[in-house]
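Box 3.1 A note on notation
Throughout this textbook, protein chains are presented in two layers. The first layer is the amino acid sequence; the second is a token string describing backbone geometry. Keep the layers aligned when reading.
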Amino acid sequence: MKYLIAGLGNIGPEYKNTRHNIGFQILDALTGASNIAFSDKRYGFVAEYKFKGRTFYLLKPTTYVNLSGRAVNYWLQKENIPIENMLVLVDDLALPFGTLRVKAKGSHGGHNGLRNISEVLGRNDYARLRFGIGDQFHPGFQVDYVLSEWSREEQKQLTERIDSCIEIIQSFGTVGVERTMNFFNKK
């Protein structure tokens, strides 16, 4: 069984520790803990992660968050991965910091990366893991907020939350989205 795990983020050192790059941060933690490395491939950095007989293609698109659809579509097709075996990792302003929500499908919820993926794929019935980043910004400063770095307080809790995200990825590949939702969305 093959899976595509697409962590959304922006390339470049200026974005490395920003809220909008949580998808990249989760995949970096997973590869670091597994002693595997990303390779610079077409439309993204890609790593192959093996877990319990499954192969996970970990994708960090190099197309920037708002244009992630091209990279996601390319890797789904290249590796012949069915859309039900794809999980997209994104930040979510509507959830308090550290809240994790797995969804089997849904709207883009105002997230431009999800919007672009849905437009390119022509559908929105793919799983996503939404990582709550909170909404602690003044009106009109949403972009500044998502592109800013984590606060010290958030950084203290980030490792534990990212570890939970890795468990969610593994669960998604082994027991499926429904059981993963039932277990992790209740935490």
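The chain has one domain: 2-184. Residues 2-184 form a domain with the Rossmann fold fold (CATH 3.40.50.1470).
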